[in-house]
């Protein structure tokens, strides 16, 4: 989930980002349909001028939703890792079995989510790979330290330390939203010894809406974003907004607005998002993330990354639309860098892995196989 979803859709007034071009104030949640330009880049480029169509039809068979027991099985098998000797980090590993010539995978969730958000992917990926999933500090069952100042750099360092101390093998990072951006930062700061490749699912441009990617229309609205920051720093106001955000019906409205496949927005998904929000420290984490610095710009980071990169982008994402500034930048990369491949997923929203896991697996599994064969 995108970090600003709570502020954009629920609260005294909510703010919606439309096509990455601006913000609109509204008094109640509503679905945002993101129109794509007539000549959107629905192709894959190999960097040599060859372009092959990769648009995926939304008419393909929808995956069967995971049962509630799948989430419980994941939770029951979770382990704890002490980060920096003081923070308990919740994580999952599919098995201790080693898959020869196949790198392990680390799944990194987005804002407001946690490792069960990968419930529709773990079983499929674990057939041929050792799969790890992690709750970032401040989310899920991981610690939420009082007064902690969250930054993108903190999460990227957590990922690198987890690779070094727990997995101890070159790993493919797979992230969604701000989890994707944390993977980009980690990959840019790491050597090939830790990160084997990265998969970005609708990568965020920053930890919050103060991320600027050369769009003057967003810059004009910075005063509004600073006002939101000021209001959220008033504990009473922040608490009232957060309590409203956590209401099941409001969460369902938010999720329905960012998922293309509405059947994937079930009670189980609502509880995956809602449950950790009741934990002590969740409010502080919410305020710190929304009001904190946006973090490093992916436009600066991506040129530093030479390892294989797979971009999977839902074309109905209202938060980081493919024709917005962030989406435009990432969609331009395959024609500039041979290590980057892009697939647009038609009829898919901000969380492709949970929205339409069948479409994600259709492109992810062959890419992982080719990565393993190239070792």
UniProtKB/TrEMBL annotation:
It holds the Pfam family Abhydrolase_1. GO terms for cellular component: chloroplast. One of its GO terms (molecular function) is chlorophyllase activity. Residues 103-357 form the AB hydrolase-1 domain. One of its GO terms (biological process) is chlorophyll metabolic process. This is AB hydrolase-1 domain-containing protein. It comes from Psophocarpus tetragonolobus.
